[in-house]
Design goal:
Chain lengths: 344, 344, 344, 344
């Protein structure tokens, strides 16, 4: 339940409501909006009786939040969350391009690709240092060496960087070296890692699990927010179905649904969804048109030699084509900003 | 296998190849392209030895067609099929809007909606006369009376009309009264009906089955084409998955894959895919951006009173909004044509 | 809604209730049980007010039937339906083995296999005369010739026979020549064919659609029953999922659910579910243990030469093994009966 | 690839082969079978040339292992792995019953249920101390207190105990207090945790991921084995599909496939698969008949009051019924053993 305070409510009145909530054995969470303050009642089992709270001074109304998620809920926070990463803003009216190779393979490779994608308008660089691989015998990433290369890429190009962490220990390092910590699809319900992410001082990019409902995905984000980290970026990357013409089935209706249910930004990773280069550009256009706040795509200078997932990486020229094809779909303002980034 | 004739090949030489194919116990199908003629070898089990055909006069080359579909295959027909319905062209560089209620309920209802959607740029009217309903106790459509109303709509508005046929008998009537015969998702592998559709003198709109792979879907189209009807329009309408936030999961990567594999036009029905009004507009934008040749959407003047599937029908104002939102995604030419239709 | 008559109710009182129901614009369906008669109210939209019926003489109570299915519902008919085919009883405490090739290929082939499976305890012979094939170029079955062979098999062996009909016309012939008419998975929601099946004088074997929920499946059976044919046998044959180690995923929990929801018999076809010979025996055991009323399996004397689906057909020796392995899972009575059939 | 040594090969010859493998940059893994020793070549990318190894003294043959899994593969180890837990043997011809509540709630609750299930033939007690919950606000388990209760249960009843660990830290504690460490479905591809499990001195019960293919599941087991822990028990617990009559769809054909592909034991958890009490008994029978090496079921003395997943827990009387119903499906030896456990 949400206790909404009058716009004239004093800090003292707010504190009184918090005390009253805690007295009932619940957890109170104060959410200060632009105009008014609301107080979420958390950790209640079953429904909460609003009566005692409605009588307190400064309380305007109470809103039952029937959905199991609260902090991620649009009902709790009407305005879009904007995740700020350096001077890049993710969410709201902004559109962001994240690009880079599946895995960081060497400093030369990373820097070459980073400069290429920056020239075309990308403002965040992606690249795996720790790779979740189905086989224990596959290339598992360069580890900390990869993180150092990512830090070098940021230094040299000014791009922010994002990479995945697979456990607590990696999370410590990723938090230190990079700007956004990615939690992959396979770890979407790794609740221990979600709790750790909730304590991170960096934004979290949370991919949707391979067979997660939207509710489960939002609940995973709720884990992160409940621990205190409000900077969560959701990333749709396709779900597993019987269809065999693409690696996963990109579920674009997730975009309007997430935007309606939550205030968090949602981007799309068409590369992992499709798994095949030739579907990436049309699906990038479709994701943009469906209302995504951005795209995360794989680009490699030599896909044929990529140590991981080469068949889905765009060639630099295809990346340029992709950007050109999404330009008409963007808003005037998004387009201007993207083109500015391109020139700079 | 495909026997490709030289561009100088005579009719006699073509006939000779046909005879040679038939002599081997296969079926030959002559496909006249713009520049050259090709002859498909059908009903072979296992691979065909190209040697005897390569020796015949006028033969340029033979192309093994490894895919199980032949007539629908891009390998057999490089140029996009354009299905002509009245003065509406479906496929290639054209973009078509098909709109109307789920079910035809009355002449007034049909005419009201038809005029509304025509004013906004739709050029084909949809409306069910025979409804495939999960329950035998649900409204099953007006039947032939509904077909008569559809004919009246065409007469009054000039719009072409499309409606579904569930069996041979209905197919006879639908063929008589309307311009396009729809085969629904539940009948995608009703092979008897597909064979009947292959003999129809009207184009077929073939919806993808709820759990059909793209190959199965193209094979269903192959049934129709193998019986002689080349005017097949494919329609993606979502597939069944575990996801519960939309009625079906719209599989938009089907669009680039179908366009690569086949020369047939492919449109999208976001209404049945989503099942909820508020997802239809974003998914219409996404479908357009993914490269669909058109959209088929449900519009009702009073969705709350609709006898069937009211919760997914757009209100007239929402339909206008949908059209406005896809305009920037269309090509210059598509946009001009759509706006012309709107004004006229 | 269901109007339940007192066990002393006269025929006249029953007739009065029927009249009262029809006067309200509904359809009444009299269901005579062992002890008492109930009258189903069909074709009502929305809920029916029980008050006027409760006042009629002979009426004991009214039961609201919240599920969309009525005639197939356990609530309407407490005792298991037994479908009688010759002297074979399907449903209740009985266990039936249906076996034979995927497709009837010749009289010799059919008779050879029929004698083999009969010797092992099968009491119904299966074999396709009309084959629903993904490709129009694949073997489509022998047609009426196949039906004549099936009739011959029955004559020679005494086995009842079942085969699939794909449309009305075939249904007429299948009804004439065989004992059970099969409606295949791809036609589970071919409502026109279901209506035709409802008028047939032979029992219907209704396979579950590839992505049908149990409710949709029961509603398909409801179509058949609503037209007057109460002899419906349900057949689980696997559903389509992401899993790639079997052709379909056999959904055995459907068995307890169907048995709870409906009075109709339910059997399992492990051959089509698995698609691979080596999974058929374990899944036959599992289906039996889950409570199925019988099995339908494919057996071929020369699977390698089968014109259709050979890789899933059991060799005769494997069929014997299968029977031996399910024997301990059967009830004493089922086992005795099966062994008797074997010896005879 | 697998280098198979002659049965007369000396330790020195084996060591030579290992050296030769390592000289090529691969990892060698010596697998001592009953009759002969084989040496697996790991971490090769692409195929390995067998020629240099075939020339070494003591080498009998080389077997290419085309499957991506090696250590879990039946090709590498022909005889069934038997996981020994106290005096309980899991795998091969043995059948094991693991039972207990979803979550450990108190010492009284745990002991009560443990005694009940032991009396009926269970030989391992299950109970969650750390619960992976979709919501951060749901009961997350008693933590270390729960582990102490599990240790107490073992002490008092003699039953071995199994519980889930969600991360490295919990794994340390679970390893200390219990007999088997469970890795849950949501963590099946938590590769960091799999690596940790590979170093554990206790057996691992590895549940199948909600949308994992069998190959991915076996590869997850390969992670554990590649780190040195060969005691892996696989547990099928249903996969996510469109079907809505059970929580997940139990995929029983996984049993014959896993048994063919791997030497590891496979058990089934029908409770989490079904999610509803009334499906658990039939699915227990079906799992047993399909060839599972055991069952893991939830039993609660007061399901209505269970803090977690109460609707799927069997009542004690139902657990007895379940055992009684699987008895006829077991082999003579399994039955005898189970009944002995019951009486003792």
């Amino acid at each position: 339940m949400l206790v909404v305070m009058s716009s004239y409510a004093t800090e003292e009145e707010i504190a009184q409501v918090v005390t009253a909530i805690e007295r009932e054995g619940y957890v109170a969470r104060v959410i200060k909006g632009g105009e008014r303050t609301a107080i979420g009642i958390l950790q209640n089992r079953g429904s909460v009786d609003p009566a005692p709270f409605l009588l307190l001074p400064g309380v305007k109304e109470t809103i039952p939040v029937s959905k199991p998620y609260k902090l991620v809920s649009r009902e709790l926070e009407l305005t879009d969350t904007i995740v700020q990463v350096g001077d890049v803003r993710i969410g709201g009216e902004n559109f962001v391009i994240i690009a880079g190779p599946c895995a960081v393979e060497s400093e030369t490779q990373a820097l070459t690709i980073a400069r290429t994608v920056k020239d075309q308008g990308a403002c965040i660089f992606r690249g795996g240092a720790y790779k979740p691989r189905t086989s224990p015998y596959s290339f598992q990433g360069l580890g900390e060496e990869g993180l150092k290369i990512l830090a070098k890429v940021r230094e040299e190009t000014g791009l922010s960087v994002v990479t995945e962490a697979l456990d607590h220990e990696q999370c410590d390092l990723v938090e230190e070296y990079t700007d956004i910590i990615q939690i992959g699809a396979r770890n979407m319900q790794n609740f221990s890692l979600l709790n750790r992410a909730g304590k991170a001082r960096k934004p979290i990019l949370l991919k949707r699990g391979m067979s997660a409902t939207i509710q489960e995905w939002l609940m995973a984000a709720e884990y992160i927010m409940a621990k205190g980290n409000s900077n969560v970026i959701l990333c749709e990357r396709g779900v597993r179905t019987f269809a065999d013409h693409s690696r996963n089935t990109l579920d674009l209706s997730a975009i309007p649904v997430v935007k309606q249910e939550s205030h968090l930004p949602i981007i799309v990773d068409p590369s992992h969804a499709c798994g095949r280069r030739d579907q990436v550009i049309p699906m990038s256009r479709a994701s943009t048109a469906a209302g995504a706040h951005g795209l995360m795509v794989e680009v490699h200078n030599e896909p044929a030699k990529a140590l991981s997932d080469g068949q889905q990486a765009l060639f630099p020229a295809q990346f340029t084509e992709m950007i050109n094809e999404i330009l008409p779909i963007l808003t005037e303002e998004q387009r201007t900003k993207l083109l500015q980034g391109r020139r700079s």
